[in-house]
Amino acid sequence: MSTSQDQLKKQAAEAALKYVQPNSIVGVGTGSTVNFFIDALATMKNDIEGAVSSSDASTERLKAHGIDVVELNNVADLPVYIDGADEIDEHMRMVKGGGGALTREKIIAAVADQFVCIADQSKVVGRLGSFPIPIEVIPMARSYVAREIVKLGGDPVWRQGFVTDNGNVILDIHNFDILDPVQLEQQLNSIVGVVTNGLFAKRGANIAIIASPSGLQFME
Ligand SMILES: O=C[C@H](O)[C@H](O)[C@H](O)COP(=O)(O)O
Q1: 74 CA distance to ligand 1 middle (Å)
Q2: What is stated as this protein's family in its record (predicted)?
C-alpha cells in the first residue's frame, strides 16, 4: 500500500516531539502538518508548560486538547518552534504562508532558539518560488504594493475574501525568479504597506524533518 501525503505529514509531525523540551513553552505553527503535531503534542501536555500559537486556528486546536496557550509577550525563553512549510530548499530556506499565518509565524520563529520544519517530501524544492510568495499587506496599501511588486518582476494576485488573523489582506506573488531569497525577502519588506512576506530565508529552519515513503530524513 502506498503511503498517503497525510500519513507522511503525520510521521514528520510525530518525529518532532523529540525536540520538545520538558517544562518549557513550545512554539506552534499553523497548517495541516502542524495539526498532526498538535495532536501528538497532546500526548505530552503534562510535561510542558504550554504553547505559543501562530494562528487562531492552532490556538483553537491546542485548547481543544487542553494545552495552555500563552501570550508571546509573556515568554522570555522559547527553545523550539515547530512549523510546516509550503517549500523548503537544501539551505533550509522556506516559503510559508499558504494558510495566511506568515506574520505571526515569522514573529514566533524570530523569538525561538530553534526552528524545526516538518514536511512531506513534496515540499522539498531545488529552488524556491514555484509556490506563490504570500505577502501580508495593510488593506489600504493593496494596490500600491501590487504595483511595486510588478516593478520587481512578480505577478501579484489578491487572495480575495481572505482576511488574516491580524485584519490584513494577502497578495500571492506568482512568477518571481528568485535568485537571492534573502535579498528578495528584505526588498519586499521594505515596500511601504507590507507587513511581512512568506520568504523565510534570513531566518530559515535549523532542523528539517522530511517524510517520504522510504522513511524520515533529518536535515540540520
Ligand atoms: O500559513 C501557513 C503556514 O505557513 C503553513 O506552515 C504552510 O502553509 C504549510 O502548511 P501545510 O502543512 O498545510 O502544507
Answers
A1: 25
A2: Belongs to the ribose 5-phosphate isomerase family.
Any atom of ligand 1 within 6 Å of the Cβ of 97? yes
CA 95 – ligand 1 centroid, Å = 9
Residue 204: burial class (beta carbons within 10 Å; 0-12, 13-18, 19+):
buried
pLDDT at 30: 98
One domain, residues 80 and 112: yes
Residue 100 CB-half CA count within 13 A: 17
Cβ contact 111:78 at 8 Å = yes
Give pLDDT tens digits for 53-83. 999 999 999 999 999 999 999 999 999 999 9
3-state secondary structure of 53: strand
Our count of domains for the chain comes to 2
- CATH number of the domain where residue 172 is located: 3.30.70.260
Same domain, 116 and 144: no
Please report the atom of ligand 1 found closest to the CA of residue 134.
1
Looking at the fold, whether 64 and 155 belong to one and the same domain comes out as: no
The range of the structural domain enclosing residue 12 comes to 5-125+202-219
Question: Can you tell me which atom of ligand 1 is nearest the CA of 84?
Answer: 6
The model's pTM = 0.95
Asked if residue 88 has pLDDT above 80, the reply is: yes
Residue 87 beta carbon below 6 angstroms from any ligand 1 atom: no
Which residues are known catalytic residues?
Answer: 105
Give yes or no: residues 15 and 58 share one domain.
yes
